[in-house]
């Protein structure tokens, strides 16, 4: 069971991640209908999450706060789903395929690279 303080810190970290996500969507508003901000948030999250879990001096609670709180609220599968549907509704089939392909395949590749890099780095210390 998580302590009330841990839950509070996850709550605060979630707010920070949500604000960062909103800021990114304001900063990366390309106006052409392609959901670049969501793609960027999800790919950055795929890169950062393995790093958080490989930080050797970070205790499990800290990993939970950073991973679930900040990164979990920064990335968004639900927005990815809705934006994918909007691309289909607007008959932007090519952008739809690029978006889902880049999100899924790109996210997995970035996670694998980040995980592999951090695993080697921790093993070499």
Automatic annotation (TrEMBL):
One Pfam assignment: CRCB
HAMAP family: FluC
Positions of Na(+) binding: 72, 75
Family according to the record: Belongs to the fluoride channel Fluc/FEX (TC 1.A.43) family.
GO BP field: cellular detoxification of fluoride
Organism lineage string: Bacteria, Bacillati, Bacillota, Bacilli, Bacillales
Compartment(s): Cell membrane
GO cellular component: plasma membrane
Transmembrane parts of this sequence: 7-28, 34-55, 64-82, 94-118
Membrane topology of this protein: Multi-pass membrane protein
Key word rRNA-binding present: no
Gene Ontology molecular functions: fluoride channel activity; metal ion binding
InterPro entries: FluC
Gene: fluC
Catalytic activity: fluoride(in) = fluoride(out)
Activity regulation as described: Na(+) is not transported, but it plays an essential structural role and its presence is essential for fluoride channel function.
Keywords: Cell membrane, Ion channel, Ion transport, Membrane, Metal-binding, Sodium, Transmembrane, Transmembrane helix, Transport
Protein name stated in the entry: Fluoride-specific ion channel FluC
């Amino acid at each position: 069971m998580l302590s009330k303080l841990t839950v509070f810190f996850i709550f605060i970290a979630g707010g920070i991640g949500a604000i960062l996500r909103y800021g990114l969507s304001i900063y990366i508003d390309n106006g052409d209908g392609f959901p670049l901000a969501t793609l960027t948030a999800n790919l950055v999250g795929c890169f950062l999450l393995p790093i958080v879990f490989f930080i050797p001096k970070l205790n499990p609670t800290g990993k939970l706060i950073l991973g679930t709180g900040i990164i979990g609220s920064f990335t968004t599968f639900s927005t990815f789903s809705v934006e994918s549907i909007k691309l289909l509704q607007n008959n932007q089939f090519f952008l739809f395929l690029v978006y889902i392909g880049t999100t899924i395949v790109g996210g997995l590749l970035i996670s694998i690279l980040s995980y592999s890099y951090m695993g080697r780095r921790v093993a070499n210390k």
